[in-house]
């Protein structure tokens, strides 16, 4: 996952592919929320990984990638453990989507970059200054504004996207650990295969025989998920991560629109206020990290 030299980068192309990825992920979340009425969230995650694996194998065959090369890794244990956190992250989000408006669940999930900042201290041994720690605290205030613990609209499921953000932060930190030595397609191979393996361990406990429609949903969401991953890879090959990171927040626009069109959900004032607090904290962390990198 080494970045290419600046001469070979095309920032506008990178931004375009990144936003396509964000849109695809937004559609996946919306479709899965629709079908939480029929299937347990964990079964939807399992079906999602079935679809991802089928799509990735088609991609690998098209690219003539050899299995022996794809599975070659210097960090096998980390490649096996890492997808478990992704399964936990998506499962937590989908459980939240079962009960919460999609925009609200998404806004809570935006706290993930702040968790990455906090967890980078014990795991990556990074130094985090008081400014970034303050941003983490402010971001959590934004979460409290959204979920309103103890309020009339409080629901236990509000905690699930927050838990999902924590799992996703751990997943991303492990991605950083792999980036220095592992090939992108190798990590992608283990992400898909590992995600299916881990979700297969728990799906029997919530299994419902899927209909033809459900199978098509598995294939569709998995295909969109695989396309999103590949678009992300292309985006990071063409633009710096610091340039792309702010565009992640465009997901809130997509899910708010989709939530209104499909579920007739109108985001509350508290949701927007909390989202602004979380996003502002996220932007401040990006700003501080950029300044630190320039100084070093």
Report on the architecture of this protein.
The chain is built from 13 helices and no strands. Helix 2 crosses helix 10 and helix 6 crosses helix 7. With 296 residues, it is an all-alpha fold. It has a domain of 206 residues. The protein is globular. The longest helix is centred in the last third of the chain and has 27 residues.
Summarize this, please?
This protein has helices at residues 11-35, 41-62, 67-70, 76-99, 102-109, 112-124, 130-147, 159-179, 184-202, 212-238, 241-244, 251-263, 269-295. It has 296 residues and is an all-alpha fold.
Distance between the termini: 22 Å
Number of contiguous helices: 13
- Kindly state the percentage of residues in helix: over 70%
Give the overall form: globular
By DSSP, the count of extended strands is: 0
Rounded radius of gyration (Å): 19 Å
Structural class: mainly alpha
Q: Which regions contain 5 or more consecutive residues with pLDDT less than 50? A: 1-5
| Main pleated sheet | none
């Amino acid at each position: 996952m080494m970045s290419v030299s600046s001469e070979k980068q095309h920032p506008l192309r990178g931004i375009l592919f990144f936003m396509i990825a964000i849109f695809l992920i937004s559609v996946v979340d919306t479709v899965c929320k629709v079908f939480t009425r029929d299937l347990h969230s964990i079964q939807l995650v399992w079906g999602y990984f079935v679809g991802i694996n089928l799509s990735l194998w088609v991609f690998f065959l098209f690219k003539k990638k050899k299995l022996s090369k794809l599975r070659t890794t210097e960090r096998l244990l980390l490649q096996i453990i890492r997808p478990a956190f992704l399964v936990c992250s998506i499962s937590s989000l989908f459980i939240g989507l079962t009960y919460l408006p999609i925009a609200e669940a998404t806004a809570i999930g935006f706290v993930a970059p702040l968790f990455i900042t906090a967890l980078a201290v014990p795991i990556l041994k990074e130094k985090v200054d008081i400014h970034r720690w303050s941003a983490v605290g402010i971001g959590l205030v934004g979460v409290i504004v959204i979920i309103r613990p103890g309020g009339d609209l409080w629901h236990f499921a509000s905690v699930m996207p927050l838990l999902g953000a924590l799992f996703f932060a751990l997943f991303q930190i492990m991605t950083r650990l792999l980036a220095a030595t592992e090939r992108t397609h190798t990590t992608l191979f283990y992400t898909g295969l590992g995600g299916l393996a881990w979700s297969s361990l728990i799906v029997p406990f919530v299994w419902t025989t899927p209909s033809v429609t459900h199978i098509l949903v598995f294939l569709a969401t998995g295909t969109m998920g695989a396309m999103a991953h590949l678009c992300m890879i292309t985006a990071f090959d063409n633009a710096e991560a610091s340039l792309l990171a702010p565009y992640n927040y465009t997901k809130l626009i997509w899910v708010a629109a989709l939530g209104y069109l499909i579920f007739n959900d109108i985001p509350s004032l508290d949701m927007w206020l909390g989202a602004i607090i979380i996003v502002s904290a996220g932007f401040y962390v990006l700003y501080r990290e950029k300044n630190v990198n320039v100084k070093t």
